[in-house]
Amino acid sequence: MSRAAQVAVVGGGIGGLVAAGLLARAGSRVVLYEQELRLGGKAQQLRAGATVLDTGPTLLTLPALVRETFAALEGEDLLPRFVALSPQCEYRWRVGSGFVAHADLGASRASVETMAPGEGRGVDGFYAAAAAIHRAAGEPYLEAPFEGMAGFFARVVRRGPSAVLQGVQMSTLHALAARHFRDPRLQQFVGRFATYTGASPYQASAAFALIPHLERIEGVHHVEGGLGALVSALEAAVRRLGVEIRLGTRGAWKQVGESWRAGPSGDETPVDAVVVNADPLGASGVSGGPLAMSGYVLLLEAPVRSRLLHHTVFFSRDYRREFDEIFSGRVPSDPTLYVCHPAATDPGMAGPGTSGLFVMANVPAMGEAFSPHAEALRARCVAVVEALDPSLRGRLRFLGERTPVDFQRQGAPGGSLYGFLPHGRLGPFRRPRSRAAPGLVYAGGGTYPGGGVPMVMLSGRFAAMQVAADLEARA
Question: In sequence order, what are the beta bridge partners of 362?
Answer without folding.
Answer: 295
